[in-house]
C-alpha cells in the first residue's frame, strides 16, 4: 500500500506549483517534502516530477499519481458522508469556509442550527477567496461562501447573488457630493486607501479595474478584516466593500458610492460545494438556511 503522507506531499507540491510553496502551506521544512517525494519515486520506480523546469511539473506518471490521490480522497469522503447518512441528522460534522464579511449574515443561522441539532458539530473557518476555493475543492470544507471567485472545474455553485462593490467613505467626504458619481479611480488617486491582500476576491477585482484605468493604488492599510476596513473610512480614508456590508447603523456616518466601471456593479457572492460530493441531509439543510438569509443585493 502506498504511503498516504507521501501521496499528500506530492499532491500539494503539484497543487502549489513548487516544493517551497507546498512546505509553507503545510508549515513544514521543504527538505521533508523533497525526501518524501524521492521515497515515493523510489517506491514506484519512476520519476514523478519533470527535472530542470520551474515550479513542479508532473510527469505522465506524476499526473496519474495526482489523479489517484484525488480519487482516494473523494472515496474516503464519500464513505464518511454515507455513514453520516445512515446516522441521519443526529450526529456528524459540517465544515463551513467563508469570507470574514459574511460572518454577521451567517452567525444567526449557525447558532440556530446548532441549537436544533446539537449532535452535529459545525466548524466555521474564515479564509480568503483562494483558500476557500482550495478548501472546498480539496474536500477540506463542505460549504464555501465566497466573493467573486474565478471559475473552477471542481466547484459546484448552488446559488449566486449579485453583490455590487461600492466605494465606502465618510459621509463628510467631498466625494459624497461629487458631481463625478459614479466615481472613477482617477478621482481617488489622492485618497488614503485601505485594501485586502492580493489573495482576497475584493482585491483581485480592484486589480482588474486598476489595470483597465491604468491607475494603481498604493494602499495605506492592507488588512483582510473587512470590519476594520469599514472603520478606516471614519477617519477620512476610503475602501471598497460589497454594498450589503453597509448596515443601517453605519449609514449615519458612512456612505457607499457607485463606481464607474460596470463590472464592479456586477460582482457576485457564491454559495459553493465540491462538484460530485454527496452532501448529507444536515449539510443540505444548513446550505438552504444560509441561502435564505443571504441579501439579494
Automatic annotation (TrEMBL):
Residues 1-59 form the HTH lysR-type domain. InterPro entries: HTH-type_LysR_regulators (IPR050950), LysR_HTH_N (IPR000847), LysR_subst-bd (IPR005119), WH-like_DNA-bd_sf (IPR036388), WH_DNA-bd_sf (IPR036390). Gene3D superfamilies: 3.40.190.290, Winged helix-like DNA-binding domain superfamily/Winged helix DNA-binding domain (1.10.10.10). GO terms for molecular function: DNA binding; DNA-binding transcription factor activity. It holds the Pfam family HTH_1. PANTHER family: HTH-TYPE TRANSCRIPTIONAL REGULATOR YBHD, NITROGEN ASSIMILATION TRANSCRIPTIONAL ACTIVATOR-RELATED. SUPFAM superfamilies: Periplasmic binding protein-like II, Winged helix' DNA-binding domain. Keywords: DNA-binding, Transcription, Transcription regulation. GO terms for cellular component: cytosol. This is LysR family transcriptional regulator. Belongs to the LysR transcriptional regulatory family.
Amino acid at each position: 500500500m502506498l504511503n498516504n503522507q507521501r501521496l499528500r506531499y506530492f499532491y500539494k507540491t503539484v497543487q502549489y506549483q513548487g516544493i517551497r510553496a507546498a512546505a509553507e502551506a503545510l508549515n513544514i521544512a521543504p527538505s521533508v517534502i523533497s525526501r518524501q517525494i524521492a521515497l515515493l519515486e523510489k517506491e514506484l520506480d519512476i520519476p514523478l516530477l519533470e527535472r530542470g523546469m520551474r515550479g513542479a511539473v508532473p510527469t505522465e506518471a506524476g499526473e496519474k499519481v495526482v489523479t489517484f490521490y484525488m480519487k482516494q480522497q473523494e472515496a474516503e469522503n464519500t464513505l464518511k458522508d454515507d455513514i453520516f447518512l445512515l446516522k441521519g441528522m443526529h450526529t456528524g460534522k459540517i465544515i463551513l469556509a467563508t469570507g470574514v464579511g459574511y460572518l454577521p449574515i451567517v452567525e444567526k443561522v449557525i447558532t440556530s442550527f446548532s441549537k436544533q441539532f446539537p449532535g452535529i458539530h459545525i466548524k466555521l473557518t474564515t479564509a480568503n477567496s483562494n483558500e476557500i476555493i482550495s478548501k472546498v475543492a480539496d474536500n477540506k470544507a463542505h460549504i464555501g461562501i465566497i466573493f467573486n471567485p474565478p471559475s473552477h472545474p471542481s466547484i459546484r455553485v448552488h446559488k449566486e447573488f449579485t453583490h455590487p462593490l461600492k466605494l465606502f467613505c465618510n459621509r463628510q467626504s467631498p466625494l459624497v457630493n461629487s458631481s463625478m458619481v459614479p466615481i472613477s479611480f482617477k478621482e481617488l488617486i489622492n485618497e488614503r486607501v485601505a485594501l485586502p491582500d492580493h489573495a482576497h476576491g475584493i482585491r483581485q477585482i480592484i486589480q482588474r479595474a486598476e489595470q483597465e484605468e491604468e491607475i494603481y493604488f498604493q494602499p495605506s492599510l492592507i488588512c483582510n478584516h473587512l470590519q476594520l476596513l469599514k472603520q478606516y473610512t471614519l477617519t477620512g480614508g476610503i475602501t471598497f466593500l460589497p454594498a450589503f456590508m453597509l448596515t443601517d447603523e453605519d449609514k449615519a456616518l458612512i456612505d457607499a458610492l457607485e463606481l464607474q466601471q460596470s463590472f464592479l456593479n456586477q460582482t457576485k457572492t457564491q454559495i459553493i460545494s465540491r462538484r460530485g460530493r454527496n452532501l448529507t441531509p444536515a449539510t443540505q439543510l444548513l446550505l438552504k438556511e444560509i441561502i435564505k438569509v443571504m441579501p439579494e443585493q
